[in-house]
């Protein structure tokens, strides 16, 4: 498409941020960096040129921030995470640098619409859910509060997968986010580290027969090559580095084998290296998938540690001072193999003894636990671990001996408790417990909500907590308000600025001043208008992508998160079926129009989760096409849920579904994002819902269901879910309809086993909580009917959740764990 462009003007200095100067820079970047003339440039070219212009401005501050930390010998934070769900970066960077309006005007003067090219930027496929998004929020907040930091992860070429829905079923396709390149990143071929697997360990003895050291001789070796992305803090306060590793072969092609005709074998090493950074969370339902995942975890952990140690030695000369100058944080158990790897590097490469190495390791590492689910606390079969990482297995056994001897010396633990403390699970298949390893190897172990932290002490880490009573602490999660209010909800941001000024832009807790406007009718009307505009935007997206027409005047009831049985999308769907039955059976009642939105991905090998997605789509198909419902209820499953989709769904939500089984959600951050955007929460007393309730007040949240203690009591007693279902007419009818094939006429038995599970065991308390949940939903209807009251409550939610900022969380990490100023 040919566009009219402004005449070329001399390229200005980077300090000039006028639209005219920026337009000139965009044209220059287009010509000299992309080799394109404006008349033939594609939208992707304009996108890339615009990013390059802003990236150039970031680089000066990036170099300055890095050099300043280096010159001042500042302690640095190194955040190791298998996921960084950073989403699109263009709006983030433009907004944080204060260039959004100027860039928009500059592009307009060139005949380019900013919003059109912004939509072309792909979501970086570097994560899956809350864990990765939290890591992204933390990186932005560390830059904002001026903490020198590096994030370390893997540069996945295809991420987890792109989700499409075919006939209601989830279909997994490669996420080709790098198809047009990544204009934000810098390849660092000079920062490449060798990574080994397998092989054997040789013991080197001194002339006197004393064991001197160990030498690991791996049989498989690859390179980890660094790719750096700058992370800009608010108002450009600091620019930190997200360093992602990509796998490369030491020898791209075995030429002698290729010339001998073995073309496939000649490329085998290249393919093996490429697999390390190809897919996030390879399916671990088979041995090959398990092995690849362990390889990935070691791959990025050792590359990161080698990078950190090399940087430290170049500055300080030795590694004795490592804990004083480096805080290495393990985001969940995925990088837990870094504990024995740092020990290996300190002992085998740098010649330290075990005791010194163990002291340095524990003082350097800290570990965040994100789950109480036993299956999510990773463990690896000992034969697999030993085959891939033979030296690390030796070190794990040595660490285990140290920990168990320490426990026995106290005289406070019996044999069963010692067995639970052990880093090696002995009952059944022998496995390396990565959660115990991370706990033992860290000076700090934190939970991510007050409830979760207490449950850690009582459940999964009860015995380790007894051994190390000062190690567990709480750091309730937070979200960055720059992404989750200022950028994704400009209408609400503008309304807040008009009412209370700009102070909340720099200190989100100042948004508390909005609380006084909840009783102001004129402000409520403006707030409602902003919400409606956001709902219209979502309605247009649904119509465009799915061909479903929804009414923005209806209550938008949204549950978007990873599909998992404990998150209980099934409870929400069953309640939708019950509501559908009630609307048809009682047309004389005044039903409140409602649209139930679902979104999220199921792990490829998680059968029940994928079945729940199919059920949501089957229920949607029936309800949405039934004229007797009169449009009072609709169900929508939004495919390929990611950060960019969330940025449209969050501001449009009236009701936020946070309905996990109590005691199973560590924290959640979606609950915080929804509340900050003016949605009321319906939820259990689980995770951070407990603290959100404390902040927003009992009248501004809908709480239902069993508590954590009550869930435990039911599981430990003779809970009879069949009796509960039979005693609840609405639930019984809904379960029977699903089980008998009302929503799956093509396969009447499709959901029978899923529903039978509710009758037989109901581990996630769907039946147990149903009546309480349905009653809370009818309370929602009552409040929604009185719109001034609803919007007053919504405004109070916005005003009272500023505490749930990742800036606050990071300052707590900095002061209480990392010992760095912030």
From TrEMBL:
Its main location: cytoplasm. The keyword Membrane does not apply. Keywords: Allosteric enzyme, Carbohydrate metabolism, Cytoplasm, Glycosyltransferase, Pyridoxal phosphate, Transferase. Its cofactor is pyridoxal 5'-phosphate. It is an enzyme of class 2 (transferase). The modification N6-(pyridoxal phosphate)lysine is found at residue 673. GO terms for cellular component: cytoplasm. Gene3D superfamilies: Glycogen Phosphorylase B. GO terms for biological process: glycogen catabolic process. Pfam families: Phosphorylase. It is found in: Cytoplasm. GO terms for molecular function: glycogen phosphorylase activity; pyridoxal phosphate binding. It comes from the Bacteria. InterPro entries: Glycg_phsphrylas, Glyco_trans_35, Pyridoxal_P_attach_site. The keyword Transport does not apply. PROSITE patterns: PHOSPHORYLASE. Its EC number is 2.4.1.1. It catalyses: [(1->4)-alpha-D-glucosyl](n) + phosphate = [(1->4)-alpha-D-glucosyl](n-1) + alpha-D-glucose 1-phosphate. Belongs to the glycogen phosphorylase family. Allosteric enzyme that catalyzes the rate-limiting step in glycogen catabolism, the phosphorolytic cleavage of glycogen to produce glucose-1-phosphate, and plays a central role in maintaining cellular and organismal glucose homeostasis. Phosphorylase is an important allosteric enzyme in carbohydrate metabolism. Enzymes from different sources differ in their regulatory mechanisms and in their natural substrates. However, all known phosphorylases share catalytic and structural properties. This is Alpha-1,4 glucan phosphorylase. It comes from Aminobacter aminovorans.
């Amino acid at each position: 498409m040919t566009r009219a462009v402004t005449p070329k003007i001399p390229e200005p200095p980077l300090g000039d941020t006028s639209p005219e100067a920026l337009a000139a820079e965009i044209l220059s970047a287009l010509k000299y960096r992309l080799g394109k003339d404006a008349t033939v440039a594609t939208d992707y070219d304009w996108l890339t040129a615009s990013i390059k212009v802003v990236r150039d401005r970031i680089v000066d501050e990036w170099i300055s921030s890095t050099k300043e930390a280096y010159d001042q010998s500042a302690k640095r934070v190194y955040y190791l995470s298998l996921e960084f769900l950073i989403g699109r970066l263009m709006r983030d960077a433009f907004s944080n640098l204060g260039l959004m309006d100027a860039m928009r005007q500059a592009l307009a003067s060139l005949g380019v619409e900013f919003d059109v090219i912004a939509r072309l930027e792909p979501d970086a496929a570097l994560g899956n859910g809350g864990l990765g998004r939290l890591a992204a929020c933390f990186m932005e907040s560390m830059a904002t509060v001026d903490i020198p930091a590096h994030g370390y992860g893997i540069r996945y070429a295809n991420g987890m997968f792109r989700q499409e829905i075919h006939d209601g079923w989830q279909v997994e396709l490669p996420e080709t986010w790098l198809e047009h390149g990544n204009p934000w990143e810098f390849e660092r071929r000079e920062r490449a580290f060798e990574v080994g697997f397998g092989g054997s360990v040789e013991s080197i003895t001194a002339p006197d027969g004393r064991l001197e050291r160990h030498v690991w001789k791996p049989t498989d070796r690859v390179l980890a090559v660094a790719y750096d992305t700058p992370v800009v803090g608010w108002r450009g306060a600091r620019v930190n580095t997200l360093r992602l590793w990509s796998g490369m072969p030491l020898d791209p092609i075995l030429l002698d084998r290729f010339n001998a005709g073995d073309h496939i074998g000649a490329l085998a090493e290249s393919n093996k290296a490429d697999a390390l950074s190809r897919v996030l969370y390879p399916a671990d339902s088979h041995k090959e998938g398990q092995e690849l995942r362990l390889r990935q975890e070691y791959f990025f952990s050792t590359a990161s540690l080698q990078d950190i140690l090399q940087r430290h030695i170049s500055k300080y000369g030795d590694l004795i001072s490592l804990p004083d100058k480096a805080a290495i944080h393990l985001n969940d158990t995925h990088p837990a193999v870094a504990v024995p790897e740092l020990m290996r590097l300190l002992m085998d490469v740098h010649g330290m003894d075990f005791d010194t190495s163990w002291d340095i390791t524990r003082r350097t590492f800290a570990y965040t636990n994100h789950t109480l689910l036993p299956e999510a606390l990773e463990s690896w079969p000992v034969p697999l671990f030993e085959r891939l990482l033979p030296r690390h297995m030796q070190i794990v056994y040595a660490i285990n001996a140290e920990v168990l001897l320490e426990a026995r010396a106290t005289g406070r633990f019996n044999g069963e408790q010692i067995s639970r403390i052990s880093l090696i699970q002995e009952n059944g298949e022998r496995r390396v417990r990565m959660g115990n390893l991370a706990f033992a190897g860290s000076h700090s172990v934190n939970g991510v909500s007050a409830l979760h932290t207490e449950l850690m002490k009582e459940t999964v880490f009860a015995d380790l907590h007894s051994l190390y009573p000062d190690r567990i602490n709480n750091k309730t999660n937070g979200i960055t308000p720059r992404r989750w209010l200022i950028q994704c909800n400009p209408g609400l941001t503008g309304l807040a600025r008009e009412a209370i000024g700009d102070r909340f832009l720099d200190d989100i807790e100042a948004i508390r001043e909005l609380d006084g406007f909840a009783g102001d009718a004129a402000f409520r009307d403006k707030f409602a208008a902003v919400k409606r505009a956001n709902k219209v935007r979502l309605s247009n997206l649904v119509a465009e992508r799915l061909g479903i027409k929804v009414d923005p005047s209806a209550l938008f009831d949204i549950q978007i998160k990873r599909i998992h049985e404990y998150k209980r999308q099934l409870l929400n769907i069953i309640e939708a079926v019950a509501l559908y039955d009630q609307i048809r059976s009682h047309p004389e009642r005044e039903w409140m129009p409602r649209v139930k939105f679902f979104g999220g991905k199921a792990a490829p090998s998680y059968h029940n989760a994928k079945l729940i997605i199919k059920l949501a789509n089957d229920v949607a198909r029936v309800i949405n096409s039934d004229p007797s419902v009169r449009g009072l209820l609709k169900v929508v499953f939004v495919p390929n849920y990611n950060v960019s989709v969330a940025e449209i769904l969050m501001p449009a939500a009236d009701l936020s579904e946070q309905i996990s089984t109590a005691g199973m959600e560590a924290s959640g951050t979606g609950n915080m994002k929804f509340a900050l955007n003016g949605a009321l929460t319906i939820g259990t007393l689980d995770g951070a819902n407990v603290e959100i309730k404390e902040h927003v007040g009992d009248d501004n949240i809908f709480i239902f269901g069993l508590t954590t203690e009550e869930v435990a009591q039911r599981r430990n007693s003779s809970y009879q879910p069949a009796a509960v279902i039979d005693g609840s007419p609405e639930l019984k009818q809904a379960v029977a309809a699903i089980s008998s094939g009302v929503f799956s006429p093509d396969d009447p038995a499709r959901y029978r086993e899923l529903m039978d599970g509710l009758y037989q065991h109901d581990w996630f308390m769907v039946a147990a909580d149903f009546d309480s949940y349905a009653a809370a939903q009818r309370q929602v209807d009552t409040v929604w009917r009185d719109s001034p009251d609803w919007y007053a409550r919504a405004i109070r939610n916005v005003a009272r959740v500023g505490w749930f900022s990742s800036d606050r969380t990071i300052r707590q990490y900095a002061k209480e764990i990392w010992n760095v100023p912030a």
